[in-house]
Task: structure prediction
Amino acid sequence: MSMLGRRRGSHDCDAGSVDPNTVLEPRTQDTLSKALSNVHLDGAIFLRAEYTDGWAYESPAAADLAGLLRPGRKRLVLFHIVAAGSCWVSVESGEKHHAQEGDVIVLPYGDQHTMSGNSDAVVVPIAGLLAPLPWTEFPVIQYGAGGPRTDVVCGYLDADGPLFDPDLRALPSVFVVRPSGAAAGWVQASIGYALEQSTITAGSNESVTSRLPELLLTEILRIYLASTPSLGQGWLAALHDPVLAPALAALHKSPERKWTIADLAIESAVSRSVLDEQFRKVLGQPPIRYLTEWRMHLAQQMLTETNLLIATVAHKTGYDSVEAFSRAFKRSRGIAPSHWKTSRER
Result:
């Protein structure tokens, strides 16, 4: 749904903030560490913006933006570093956050979003504020009605792993984190790096690609995942849940095991009915369905990143035959594993 012509002000409530006092138990920390260790990132800082209040823009759809920045990709992780001033960011679901100087806004699935200042303004497509590709100079947006200024540094990362799979939606569509310590230094370095860039080679983003976005997002994720507020639903809420956390830890540790609901109930020290009810309530699906989806995430990763035979991938994800694995993979991904592997190799 296009937001062109809508007006956005500063009177909406902030969608919430991370509680820095929240501490995860060691088993949950281990689950998160394993999830993060499997994440592979490759990114760049691609533009900076100088907005003056009032201003508001809408990003392209996720697939359109990814296709422009990284041809062949359907989604990218987007982040915005607020270098000065403050702004609002919202997604189509209505979730909205306020961010100020030093904050990092993360859109882990690259969803279409709106950013705005603190005064009412007509929402315009950001494409209309940028020169057409290919860029021969580092893009700088200067836009607004002349009010207080907000500077934003924008970047993207091409990320794989279950945390960034839009089907799993392990993370919220948008969240804001204020880094501290070493991460705060990386934020400042990223800002300085972007501000110093003036030209790039036509058709290439090599000079603006650096490890800073990777280091920054990895640290931001650790901060967020370790201190996420208690949510009622979703993967992160499940990691805090006393019933689900032990079951998820067991599934993630041994995804190839022939799990039954009774086995998982023993891990969580609850009845099968309680376990099944909690899975459906928090994760929106029964335990065995979650296990299947997790196996498909792991299979996708192995098919993309390794030279393992499909039969080996099937075995490592708990399937006795290639045929059974292929049927499950095609149901989940809409394509046979052999075709998936071939397309990724190309």
Summary: Residues 193 and 208 are 8 Å apart (CA to CA).
